[in-house]
Write a structure and sequence with these properties.
36% helix, 269 residues, two-stranded antiparallel sheet, binds phosphoenolpyruvate, alpha/beta, TIM Barrel, 15% strand, single chain, binds manganese (II) ion
Length: 269
């Protein structure tokens, strides 16, 4: 279905586009971010991502670069011309990112943080609203209303897998639920198969399924050297994996009359 178009810089999410959002789980250093940013940009990514204030299960693990990430975000945006999405873990982060970040992401653990959602409703930046790890579909789409009530109608939903009784994979991708949320809300829905599966081997198949099912895009984690990543290295795509993923999407996109590109209709770079 044709969803609302959310425009961010020269990129479009929704409408009839299939957009790839890509970047590292956490921004770690200049070389890591620039390597990934330049690579995914050259292959048609519509938006960059990278965590700055991480919501880690273990408080002793890497918590993110904080303010040291801001010059790196500026450099990646300048080099690629792409918009940048970062998770806001706290209302104070909205102001913190005001000048440098284009799209504010609500992480799975904060989908039910209604006071954060209300604050995001007052901003005029697009919001990526991830599904809570145990959220019902109704709760997820009601969370949109908290943002829209403040006058911000630029919401992109992101299915990132839910916690089920199945322990083999990190989460269970609810593809039907993602399509339901898209049909019910009319807002664009992207799939995050990185957190959804926790397994690089399953990311490309799930990305293809998302495209074939009519979702509006994917968000994937990419790292130049996953073995050395400071967070989520076990699920990161290498640069080569990313290329294979994009190559595999093209024939499906072509069959559907879609382009994997930043504005959904321009030529491949
Ligand atoms: C992320 O995208 O960086 C992230 C932490 O994901 P989630 O909130 O879905 O766990
Ligand atoms: Mn991650």
């Amino acid at each position: 279905m044709k969803t609302r178009e959310i425009r961010v810089g020269s990129s479009v999410i929704g409408g009839s586009a299939f957009s790839v959002v890509a970047g590292p789980c956490s921004i770690e250093n200049q070389k890591q971010l620039m390597t990934v940013a330049n690579h995914v940009s050259e292959r048609g990514a519509a938006m960059l991502r990278g965590g700055v204030f991480k919501m880690r299960t273990d408080p002793k693990s890497f918590q993110g670069l904080g303010k040291d990430a801001l010059p790196l975000i500026r450099e990646a945006k300048a080099a690629t011309g792409l918009p940048f999405a970062v998770e806001v873990a706290d209302p104070s982060h909205i102001e913190f990112f005001a000048d440098d970040v284009d799209v504010l992401q609500v992480g799975s653990r904060n989908m039910h943080n209604y006071y954060l959602l209300k604050e995001l409703g007052k901003t005029r930046k697009p919001i990526i609203l991830k599904r809570g790890l145990a959220a019902h579909l109704k709760e997820w789409i009601l969370a949109i209303d908290y943002i829209v009530a403040g006058g911000n109608e630029q919401v992109i939903l992101c299915e990132r897998g839910i916690r089920t009784f199945e322990p083999e994979l990190r989460n269970t991708v609810d593809l039907a639920g993602a399509v339901w949320a898209q049909q019910k809300s009319g807002f664009p829905v992207i799939l995050d198969p990185s957190h959804g599966t926790g397994s690089p081997d399953l990311i490309a198949p799930m990305a293809k399924a998302a495209l074939a099912a009519g979702l509006d895009g994917i968000m994937v984690e990419v790292h130049p050297n996953p073995a050395c990543a400071l967070s989520d290295g076990f699920q990161a795509l290498t640069l080569e994996n990313f290329d294979q993923l994009i190559t595999g999407l093209h024939p499906i996109a072509q069959a559907l009359g879609k382009k994997i590109s930043r504005n959904g209709s321009s030529e491949q770079k």
